Hints:
Elements: E1 4-6, H1 12-21, E2 26-28, E3 35-39, H2 43-53, E4 62-64, H3 80-89, E5 94-99, E6 114-118, H4 123-132, E7 136-137, H5 152-159, E8 165-167, E9 179-182, E10 189-192, H6 198-205, E11 209-210, E12 234-238, H7 243-254, E13 259-263, H8 265-270, E14 276-278, H9 283-300, E15 303-307, H10 316-326
Parallel strand pairs: 1-8, 2-8, 4-6, 5-9, 10-11, 12-15, 13-14, 13-15
Antiparallel strand pairs: 2-3, 3-7, 4-7, 5-6, 9-10
Helix pairs in contact: 1-4, 9-10
The protein binds adenosine monophosphate and magnesium ion (MG).
Amino acid sequence: METQILSRSRGWLERAKQYIEAGEVVAFHTETVYGLGANAFSDEAVLKIFALKGRPADNPLIVHVHRAYDISPLIDGEPPYAAALRSAFLPGPLTMVYPSTGKVSKYVSCGLNTLAIRVPSSPTAQAFLKAVDLPVAAPSANLSKHVSPVTARHVFDDFNGKIPLILDGGACSGGIESTVLDCTGDIPQILREGLVTREMIASVAGECGVYRPKTGERPKSPGMAYKHYAPRCKTAYFGREELEKAIECYEKEAKTGVPCFLCESEVCALLKDRRTLDLGGTPEEMARRLYALLRKGEEQATLLIGVEPREKGGVMAGVMNRMKRAFGVEHGTKES
Ligand code: AMP
Ligand code: MG
């Protein structure tokens, strides 16, 4: 199969719609990362996503809809705070988990009685979702465990010859996956941190919890238990106060291989003429650059050395979660 990359041009949405209606999988730009989409009503189409990614069968998918799509048949009611959150943050990088009516394919939620729904703000995603006018199940468009894609080229690198079409909307401005928020309880609870922060949610809903799975418990957000975002080269990770040790590690690798640092701008400046990939200075910059730099690192280096950024507030909770998992510092309980 030939994989086409199309950006806004005549007939591109009709092409995407035809593929989705035929049960094919189409990759598309969103403001967070690229998604790998299929008709959420079709068992066969949804199962194709799992097969293409090599995704574990218990890791549920998020359903994407356009801004005017009526989700009420898909969900079994919503608490009052959810309506307020929708009008405050949607379209945008916030996924809301509701009690499901079971209308979409049972493979979307992997046996959970809930459904995760997202309304992306990317004009490309909105145009695509409007054209198909169906709920589109879509995880990130990377092979399972690999770094999430933030350009059409990243998607192509993982799925060339495996999918018919990538809708190119340019580089993703957000850069890390959406915040996943459980909206089934009395107060909203964050299952995965992202660009819509706990503080932002609490300012609208009054309160917001952050879910931490207890040992032995089946996690509410199964995907968070898997190893993720891993570059395909050796990695090492150091705290900000361990810079000397990090430099020793770099020099040792330099004797036989190609080491490279991945760190914030102020640390890059201290590393002089050593190879560095610069995450930037602000949390938003670090979110936007992280995945592209992890992919660059795996192409150029034999050892990628992460140094923990100093910044901690706001969006950094989401950035640190991805960074530590990419470097194998924290990846929950499962290895697949
Ligand atoms: P991805 O799109 O690859 O970032 O994966 C989507 C993630 O959303 C999954 O790994 C889950 O952690 C989360 N998710 C999807 N559906 C649900 C659901 N019904 N309940 C809780 N979390 C979900
Ligand atoms: Mg993913």
